[in-house]
């Protein structure tokens, strides 16, 4: 179920990005939040695993709107290097969710039943939807309105852009260790290694804090050092972390979760520094027009 959720979360962003270029950031992100809240309520009423999986997929589709459009709004308002710094701060805050969600979800499940987990998500999504409806302005520049012909032209530019593929690989390979640990860590640490859930929680917190610190560091340094220099630094840290993991596996196999956490904790700066993820075609080939910054 988790894999299907993450696949839906990722692929839906390919849809919401062009839609926000065509119709604007505000209506698309509001629709995504409404879809997420509605799917969460629907998940509470399901009576079969198939229906639950289906509602989780719809929930992921709605949640993806905030991920991609939030970054688009930042790109609308800030220059490239400044946008990288702002996205780093946003990602730092986003890591708090996977850090505390297992604890909160466990408490709700134990005290009130699994349905209350989806009720909490629906309430939170509904609150953000209400807030966005009142306070979120439209930031898409008028000259950026997307057409099918322009979209196809940008896709062609992406396919032929080596720079774009390089940025994508940096982001994907930098994020992979953290999210691999997020999805597979409980099974590996608790089931295969025979450690306690508390120990897993400790090592997960270490990896999450490293992820947060890397994004915060990148947000402070990207304007001064430049995005490309930060990416190089992140790749170097990735190589160091991979080498440390290989040495630990060979010499201290009894180290257990520390081996996994070492690798997961080395990725944050590379992940943070891959954050020049503005609209891909513009990143690789051109510069977008920008809206005026908010007062």
Description:
The structure is a single chain. With 295 residues, this protein is mainly alpha-helical. It has two domains: 1-146, Growth Hormone, Chain: A; 148-287, no CATH class. The protein contains 13 helices and no strands. The protein is globular.
Keywords:
single chain, 295 residues, mainly alpha, Growth Hormone, Chain: A, 82% helix, 0% strand, disordered C terminus
How is the topology of this model organized?
Layout: H1 2-23, H2 25-44, H3 49-77, H4 80-94, H5 96-112, H6 115-135, H7 148-159, H8 162-192, H9 197-225, H10 227-251, H11 257-265, H12 268-273, H13 280-285
Helix pairs in contact: 1-2, 1-3, 2-3, 2-6, 3-4, 4-9, 8-9, 8-11, 9-10, 9-11, 10-11
The CATH homologous superfamily of the largest domain corresponds to MFS general substrate transporter like domains
> What is the string of SSEs from the N terminus onward?
HHHHHHHHHHHHH
- What is the CATH C-level name of the largest domain? Mainly Alpha
Give the tally of structural domains: 2
Shape type: globular
Low-confidence stretches: 272-295
Strand proportion: under 5%
Main sheet record: none
Percent of residues in helices: over 70%
Q: In the CATH hierarchy, what is the architecture of the largest domain at level 2?
A: Up-down Bundle
Kindly state the number of beta strands. Answer: 0
Specify the structural class. Answer: mainly alpha
Radius of gyration computed on alpha carbons: 20 Å
| Average pLDDT rating | 78
Query: How far apart lie the N and C ends?
Result: 43 Å
């Amino acid at each position: 179920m988790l894999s299907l959720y993450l696949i839906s979360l990722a692929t839906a962003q390919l849809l919401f990005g062009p839609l926000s270029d065509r119709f604007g950031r505000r209506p698309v992100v509001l629709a995504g939040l409404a879809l997420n809240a509605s799917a969460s309520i629907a998940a509470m009423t399901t009576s079969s695993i198939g229906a639950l999986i289906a509602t989780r997929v719809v929930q992921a589709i709605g949640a993806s709107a905030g991920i991609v459009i939030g970054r688009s709004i930042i790109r609308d308002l800030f220059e490239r290097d400044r946008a990288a710094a702002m996205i780093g701060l946003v990602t730092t805050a986003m890591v708090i969710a996977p850090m505390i969600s297992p604890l909160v979800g466990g408490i709700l499940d134990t005290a009130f039943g699994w349905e209350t987990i989806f009720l909490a998500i629906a309430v939170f999504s509904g609150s953000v939807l209400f807030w966005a409806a009142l306070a979120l302005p439209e930031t898409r520049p008028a000259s950026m309105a997307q057409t099918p012909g322009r979209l196809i032209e940008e896709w062609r530019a992406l396919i032929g852009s080596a720079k774009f593929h390089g940025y994508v690989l940096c982001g994907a390979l930098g994020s992979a260790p953290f999210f691999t640990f997020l999805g597979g860590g409980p099974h590996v640490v608790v089931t295969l290694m025979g450690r306690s859930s508390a120990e897993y929680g400790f090592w997960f917190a270490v990896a999450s804090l490293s992820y947060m610190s890397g994004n915060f560091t990148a947000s402070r340094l990207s304007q001064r050092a430049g995005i490309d220099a930060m990416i190089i630094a992140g790749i170097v840290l990735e190589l160091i972390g991979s080498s440390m993991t290989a040495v630990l596996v060979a010499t201290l196999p009894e180290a257990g979760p520390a081996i996994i956490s070492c690798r997961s904790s080395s990725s944050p700066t590379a992940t943070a520094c891959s954050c020049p993820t503005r609209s891909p075609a513009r990143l690789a080939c051109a510069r977008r027009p920008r809206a005026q910054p908010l007062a």
